[in-house]
Amino acid sequence: MWYDTVKQTSVKGALFVGINKELSHREFIQRETGETHSPYEKELEFYSAVAAGNIERVRKLYTPLAVEGYGKLSDDPVRNVKYHLTITIALIARFCIEKGLPTETSYTISDIFINKLDVATDLLQLEDIHREVFIEYAKRMQKVNSGNAYSKHVLMCLDIIYDNIYNGVRVQEIADRLGLTPQYLSKLFKQEVGMTISEYIMSRRIQAAENMLKFSEYTPLDIGNYLNFSSHSHFIACFRKHTGLTPKQYRENYFRISWQDRE
């Protein structure tokens, strides 16, 4: 026991010394070469402009992507920029959440752009993503700051729905978790979102079904069961009501259009 404790302490000490040595070395190199990180205040000003939905200010403060001026996270220039952009996207997502963007909306947008980074192969593609992500968040925050932002209870309701979209959730359950009456929550939700909670839940289930039909190999029957529709015929009827197509027609139509685009 005593030996193990001493050994662990020695390992931690060696790691601490190693990091300190690497830190000193890198700081020396950065001073000599002039390679420094972007000023923190400048970054905060830019992120704040995005979170405020001030598109004009965002465009004014925006600086094109460059290989220089970033800390070195990888010897490969493209991978180095990818790492930094991943951090940037994660930060801006959290800035926007703090200013009222629905949590799951912000995180999902973040996931979409990080997925784009993952498959990008050159700096030109990364430049496009870099510019696009800020404008996308700024536009959404412009709506949030225009007075169309949801109240705290509606935001929490949306998060609960998102977390349970595949399991199913009832209005009573949501109201209980928020400490509200179903009547009050329903009235508040309809007033702010423009549809009932049940209508919104159904729209999200259909949206999830659309994505599964596009991007998975699950059969329509499996998708209907996965999304907890009472029967396959019920799933088809609800899907057709929202999209104008049966699940089978939707999948066939998507792949037909997709192949035409490729050609």
TrEMBL record:
Q: Does the keyword Transferase apply?
A: no
Record keywords? DNA-binding, Transcription, Transcription regulation
UniProt cross-references to InterPro entries, sorted A to Z: Homeodomain-like_sf (IPR009057), HTH_AraC (IPR018060)
Q: What Pfam families does the record point to?
A: HTH_18
In its UniProt record, a GO molecular function of this protein is:
sequence-specific DNA binding
* Superkingdom: Bacteria
Q: Which residues cross the membrane?
A: none
Q: Where is the HTH araC/xylS-type domain?
A: 155-253
Kindly provide the name given to this protein in its UniProt entry: AraC-type DNA-binding protein
- What is the source species? Ruminococcus albus
